[in-house]
User: Which sequence fits this backbone?
């Protein structure tokens, strides 16, 4: 997507073959690119969350394998590199998936052929991600266009609420929840986005708002408390969110707070869509309540990061503590939205109901024998 | 309530007759008391939100009338003082109510008798507020005790979720939503409070957490996104919140985000109680959707206030900006929770259903002829 008119991906190879990423921990305050020179760089980028979002983590790991076997393509080295990458963030499904895919391609090859094959396979993983998200975006565009036409107020934008960041920064390009919005904007449909700030890490305020600024898409930041009221007031035409893991019955596990918005959408008859590539479906789980919920550190709740308003000399970043020193915090990072609250799933293969039947209609190869 | 073992109210007269308040804009980082010496001081304290919470604003205005007529008890002066106070925050119902009550008592008196009568009436307003909230707390205690006994796990606390600050800092003492919690704690019932941080102004993190620290009540701060998940996990036994205005049908208008928690409570069969003194009922409104919702400034969303973590020299307070500079924000300050989502109303006269019939059973004098 565009940054100041220049097309970017969240990870890319330069003409000289170098791997570069955007340091997402500094956005929206600073735009800094970082070169990954070694597999250790890739591991640190993942574990310190310079890159985040399951698809992007997978893509970064694939390049990490390439960087790791430069100069030593032996079996031992390949195994060490893959183990190190997999351990960088053990909960991310796409990380393991990408590393295993690289390993499956490279291990059978003679060492001398591995490096060239690795770069090719990593490119494939990246390109496939871009294609899947763009396709998902086209299917989502159809839903937005339908709502726009049903509204029948050509000058009025379609108002879309989203939570967290499921944009191009979370993938290699296009994003999941934001891909349909980018497609609608490009198709000339006026859109306006309500951006949940998404405490505690504020990915909405930091990343989604920044993406939308870059794309020139009209939006307003809101606190996570506001969405229900806006829906009551008829100011939300649809919601689109991403998902970190989708159970086989259509329950979706996404950033904490998603469930509350889905409840409000149901209460106000606002369509609630979840956008996902098929790879996020965990066919081994019959329902979402089996998904383990990560409990993260309390400092994410007790402190808020941003740029300091009073700084007179350049842009200073820092954080403020909001609670009494004696107060402890709890910080569950995800919640599960039951399929009954989800209007439909938007995938790279089309739109389906949030149900086992719906998912199997698009992914019949996943039916158990 | 207690601060470091010393009993305080949110506004009080010293032995020398001075009126003092706590500067709530500095909590929880700094505990500073401020003396109100003139009616202008009182007006500034209300408009700049050194005091906030409808009952406390009313109490402050009553003392403001006293301060305003020291040295000049004429009709003209009384009228000027009352007008100035009423304009300090025109949306707060209790402000107008308290000023009108003072005026009704003082205007008929000979000027020479007014000042003494003013101090007495202001004391009455303060004492009545304390009594109403304590009574409300006793009624709420009954509900908490019942839930504790039904849980039948004596060592396990009753887990109570609250939103915003409806504690003693929002009133003269005891609070509304927190009064039952203080009463339960005093009665030896183990309680644990989930404190919604309550963006954008973070009154939960700033004020409710600080109150609970002072009272020695176990609590955890959570982001506003977390409550639904905690209810899904069975970690919330009941919710108690306050209300800024209650329609005659039992709909409640409270801090933005209250509605989302009420939806989650209903979805998970968690009791959702609203605590209020009868004075917040607006008998002229048949339903909550007639209540105008204040839209506040966008800086409350775009910036977060707190103490700076890196400061090496004493406690520095400041704010950080969380969004891109080009991003605008929307900031509705309240939402309306429909009566159908409210398990019961807790008032100083007892507990009733959230309905016209329920309210009239406690306030029969409000029935229209």
Assistant:
């Amino acid at each position: 997507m565009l940054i100041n008119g220049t097309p970017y991906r969240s990870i890319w190879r330069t003409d000289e073959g170098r791997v570069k990423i955007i340091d997402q921990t500094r956005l929206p305050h600073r735009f800094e690119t970082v070169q990954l020179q070694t597999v250790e760089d890739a591991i640190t980028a993942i574990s310190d969350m310079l890159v985040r979002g399951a698809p992007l983590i997978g893509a970064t790991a694939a390049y990490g394998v390439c960087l790791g076997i430069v100069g030593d393509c032996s079996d031992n080295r390949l195994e060490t590199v893959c183990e190190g990458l997999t351990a960088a963030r053990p909960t991310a499904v796409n990380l393991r998936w990408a590393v295993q895919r690289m390993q499956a391609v490279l291990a059978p090859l003679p060492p001398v052929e591995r490096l060239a094959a690795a770069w090719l396979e990593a490119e494939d993983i990246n390109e496939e991600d871009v294609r899947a998200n763009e396709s998902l975006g086209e299917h989502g565009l159809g839903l937005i266009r339908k709502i726009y036409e049903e509204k029948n107020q050509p000058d009025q934008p379609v108002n879309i609420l989203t939570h967290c960041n499921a944009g191009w920064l979370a993938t290699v390009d296009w994003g999941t929840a934001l891909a349909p919005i980018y497609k609608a904007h490009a198709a000339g449909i006026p859109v306006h986005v309500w951006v949940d700030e998404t405490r505690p890490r504020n990915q909405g305020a930091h990343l989604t708002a920044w993406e939308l600024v870059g794309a020139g898409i009209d939006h307003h930041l809101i606190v996570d408390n506001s969405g229900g009221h806006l829906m009551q007031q008829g100011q939300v035409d649809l919601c689109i969110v991403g998902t970190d893991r989708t159970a086989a019955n259509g329950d979706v596990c996404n950033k904490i707070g998603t469930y509350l918005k889905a409840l409000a959408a149901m209460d106000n008859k606002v369509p609630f869509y979840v956008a996902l590539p098929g790879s996020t479906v965990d066919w081994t789980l019959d329902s979402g309540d089996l998904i383990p919920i990560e409990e993260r550190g309390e400092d994410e709740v007790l402190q808020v990061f941003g740029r300091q308003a009073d700084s007179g000399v350049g842009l200073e970043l820092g954080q403020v503590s909001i609670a009494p020193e004696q107060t402890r915090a709890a910080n569950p990072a995800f919640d599960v939205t039951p399929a009954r609250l989800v209007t439909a799933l938007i995938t790279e293969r089309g739109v389906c109901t949030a149900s086992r039947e719906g998912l199997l209609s698009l992914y019949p190869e996943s039916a158990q024998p």
